Every structure is written in C-alpha cells, then in structure tokens.
C-alpha cells in the first residue's frame, strides 16, 4: 500500500476523493421507500456510519441482489427480512467485503463506511473487516483456544503488544460487555468449545466487539439457539447498540420486531429474478402499517 492510500482505519471524516461520493455524504437521504406514501424519516441524527447505494451482487453471471440502497443510522439496529434465497446473506456479506471471497463473486454499486467507499481502489479489505465485524448463524469460536484467547485472537491484538494486565483488563471488560463475564470468569483458560451454543455465540459477539468495530453484521445469529439463549442475545444486542451500529438478518418476525429500530424487506418478485428492496422504514411502521402488499403478506406470515 502506498503512503497516501486511504484506509478505512486512518481515513479522514470525509473522503478526499472517491469515485462516486454521494451528494450529501454527512447526512444522506433516509432509506429509500418505494411507496408513494410519505413515511417518517429515521430518527437518528448525525452521520451514517454505513450506507449502500445501488448495490448489486453476483455469483458468476447470476445476479443475486439488485440495486439495494439503504442507510444504517448510527447506534440503531436494522433488521433485514425476506424469504429464504432473496439475497439477505449475500447483501450483508458485501458490507464487509466477504462476498468477494467466494470464487467468481463480485458486486457493483457502493458501500460507504464513514463516507469512504469500501470498494474504492485504495481500500484495504482487512481494515474493512476489522471495522465491520460479523457474527454468523453457527457460533464459530476457535474451539480449542481458551475463552480468554478467543477475545485476544482478533488481528488488532495479534499485532498490538499488550502486557499481561492489559490483556486481563481487556478480556474482563469485553466479556462483561457481552454479558458473559459472570458465567465464565472462573474458567477463562478453559476451551471455548466447551461452552454452550448460546455462550459460544455471545463469545463470538464479544470477540467481534473487542475490535471496536463501527458496524456489527449478524446473519441469523440466533437460528441455531434455543429460545432462552435467543432472548439473551437479543438483550445483548439492545445493550451494545450505543457502541456499535447493528445490521441483523433474521427470519424471525418477532425478533425483528423486538430488537430492531428499522426494518428492510427484501424479496424476489418472480423466479430467477434478483432480490430487491421492497420497503424500508421504522420497524413499527413496517410491521404495523406496511405500504406494499408484498410486505404486508410477508410480515403477516402469508408467504415466505
Ligand atoms: N456461494 C454461492 N454460489 C452461487 N450462488 C449462491 C451462493 N450463495 C448463495 N447463492 C445464491 O444467491 C441467492 C441468494 O442467496 P442468499 O444470499 O443465501 O439468500 P438468503 O440469505 O436471503 O437466504 C440464491 O439464489 C442462492 O442460491
Ligand atoms: Mg441467509
């Protein structure tokens, strides 16, 4: 990387030059709503940590999602909902440049992180993935590493030399923040693989938070968990959103209603077409007063 390259980590608040900077980068338009009816704008103020513009994603020649323009306001939770196969995972994986790790996968359009296009030529994918954490459906801690070492496993800490007390402090602070400390404080050296599924998932969230990301992506983080563990993850989501902006894919409508501030509904209209954003807005409105018949049918459980 050259000296003057823009990385996500050390990027200025505003882009110096980007190919397609939005017209009002510090305060972009509210989520696009296809319905003609007016709808209240997001309540969040201040700059958007993340937004996408006309994002399309492909696997080879197959277009999986098309032209998704969405904003993720700071310190809010946005739920992505839609039937299986509509492209939710594909879209979310474009938000931290994981999509491109699939052979022949690519995307077009833009993803802005702190007003920097993460697909700009100078952007560093490793820095992007550090700033945009991800949690998956199946908890994926390092099973043979200790609980403490899972927290310290992130690239930030493998590069940074912390002394023993700094490491101890970081582990405790992070595990407390993830609501896991009391359950594991007496076995920090035990293997992470010995934790329950719900604990492992909270450990994965803790590991992601230890990197102090701007955005945390969660792709159906509770679908492998029992109801009680699910509620604990939801509590955790609510407690961390003052620190991180959250995008969560869920097929559980009650979960979307419980944890999210905004909801975006994506669907495929006809077989073989890409997934498209149908409607987005405050969660209460998407569930209580959707503008599109397709949204209404989906949130009421009549299809999908
Ligand atoms: N690795 C892949 N290779 C090729 N096609 C894929 C791959 N992953 C997903 N797809 C296709 O992309 C579309 C969207 O899938 P996905 O993003 O997983 O949907 P969702 O998460 O909403 O269920 C589907 O048609 C799926 O078959
Ligand atoms: Mg998926």
The CATH class of the domain at 50-138 and 214-299 is Alpha Beta
The helix content is 25-40%
Taking all Cα atoms into account, the compactness measure Rg is 19 Å
The biggest beta sheet is recorded as: 6 strands, mixed
Total of helices: 11
Instruction: Indicate the structural class.
Output: alpha/beta
User: How many strands?
Assistant: 10
What percentage of the residues does DSSP assign to strands (E)? 15-25%
Strand order of the largest sheet: 6-7-8-3-9-10
Mean pLDDT across residues: 86
Brief account:
The protein is an alpha/beta fold and 304 residues long. It has 11 helices and 10 strands.
Notes on the structure:
This protein is α/β, with parallel strands linked by helices. It has a domain at 50-138 and 214-299: Rossmann fold (3-Layer(aba) Sandwich), CATH 3.40.50.300. The protein contains eleven helices and ten strands. It has a six-stranded mixed beta sheet, sandwiched between helices. It has a four-stranded antiparallel beta sheet with strand order 2-1-4-5, with helices on one face. A hairpin with a 2-residue loop joins strand 1 (50-59) and strand 2. Helix 5 packs across helix 7 and helix 7 (197-210) runs parallel beside helix 8. The relative contact order is 0.18. The model is unreliable at 1-45 (pLDDT under 50). The site of magnesium ion (MG) has 2 residues, from helix 1.
């Amino acid at each position: 990387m050259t000296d003057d390259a823009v990385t996500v980590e050390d990027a200025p608040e505003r882009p110096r030059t980007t190919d397609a900077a939005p017209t009002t980068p510090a305060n972009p338009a509210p989520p696009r709503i296809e319905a003609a009816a007016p709808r209240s704008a997001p309540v969040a103020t201040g700059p958007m940590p993340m937004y996408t513009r006309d994002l399309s994603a492909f696997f080879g020649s197959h277009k999986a999602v098309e032209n998704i323009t969405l904003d993720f306001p700071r310190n809010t939770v946005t739920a992505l909902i839609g039937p299986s196969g509509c492209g939710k995972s594909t879209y979310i994986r474009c938000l931290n440049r994981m999509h491109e790790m699939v052979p022949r996968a690519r995307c077009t359009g833009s993803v802005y992180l702190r007003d920097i296009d993460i697909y700009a030529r100078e952007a560093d994918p490793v820095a992007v993935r550090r700033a945009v954490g991800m949690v998956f459906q199946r908890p994926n801690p390092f099973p043979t590493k200790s609980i403490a070492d899972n927290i310290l496993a992130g690239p930030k800490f493998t590069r940074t030399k912390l002394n023993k007390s700094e490491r101890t402090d970081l582990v405790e602070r992070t595990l407390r923040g993830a609501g896991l400390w009391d359950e594991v404080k007496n076995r920090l050296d035990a293997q992470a693989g010995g934790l329950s599924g719900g604990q492992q998932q909270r450990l994965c969230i803790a590991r992601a938070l230890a990197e102090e990301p701007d955005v945390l992506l969660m792709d159906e983080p509770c679908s492998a968990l029992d109801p009680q563990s699910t509620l604990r993850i939801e509590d955790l989501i609510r407690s961390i959103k003052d620190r991180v902006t959250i995008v969560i894919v869920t097929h559980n409508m009650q979960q979307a209603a419980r944890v999210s501030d905004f909801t975006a509904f994506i669907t495929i209209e006809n077989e073989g077409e890409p997934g498209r954003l149908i409607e987005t807005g405050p969660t209460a409105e998407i569930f209580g007063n959707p503008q599109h018949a397709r949204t209404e049918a989906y949130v009421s459980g009549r299809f999908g």
